[in-house]
Amino acid sequence: xxxxxxxxxxxxxxxxxxxxxxxxxxxxxxxxxxxxxxxxxxxxxxxxxxxxxxxxxxxxxxxxxxxxxxxxxxxxxxxxxxxxxxxxxxxxxxxxxxxxxxxxxxxxxxxxxxxxxxxxxxxxxxxxxxxxxxxxxxxxxxxxxxxxxxxxxxxxxxxxxxxxxxxxxxxxxxxxxxxxxxxxxxxxxxxxxxxxxxxxxxxxxxxxxxxxxxxxxxxxxxxxxxxxxxxxxxxxxxxxxxxxxxxxxxxxxxxxxxxxxxxxxxxxxxxxxxxxxxxxxxxxxxxxxxx
Length: 291
Description:
eleven-stranded mixed beta sheet, Nucleotide-diphossugar_trans, single chain, alpha/beta, globular
């Protein structure tokens, strides 16, 4: 008998994208799943759209927040009512691009009980659906652990994890809003193992791709304290703490650098010199080569 998978999809004002996200869930080859949508007090037609889907599909459960509670609270609410053995995540503006994603991940976790979390590759797209870049993440547990304190080496919307492990470690922590997934992985890794498929699982919509640099810079600077706190919290559990702290500060100062696109190759070389090659393997979609 195939175990139930619960897909958690929090949403806020995504009337333009939510339909494709839902359709990608039920386009999966794996059919024993439920979809839990947490509507975080949307003010557009998102509520009406998801209610329409739920009327015709008993596998959909909708939780409505009376006020906007934010992503972390919404995620924890969704997982709390989930009935599945496994939890999958999908954002309201993303789409799973592999219809066997869940099937492959469930098969892996069923065969490997010592693992709690599996992920996969990402294809970033812009608001027009044009591909920006595609990349894979470290595959084996050994290499994931070497990199995970420096970089978040799992894409939130590409993962599948065990609900019982999630409960053991206390779920998502609101202290780490904006990087709540990264904190969850680090907690889970203290008691279990990691794996990333070397396949592409999700079209990730980069909403900020065309935004001015000053907005991205603001996010980097806003998050520097919480990023530092995350590294300190797990300094005894994962290697390369000093590198992780240095990388955090380097990212902060990098946010002040002008002409980043023009300086990209130089900055990449400097990063490789101090921190080694990035854990992301960028793939040329035409030649199917990694860089």
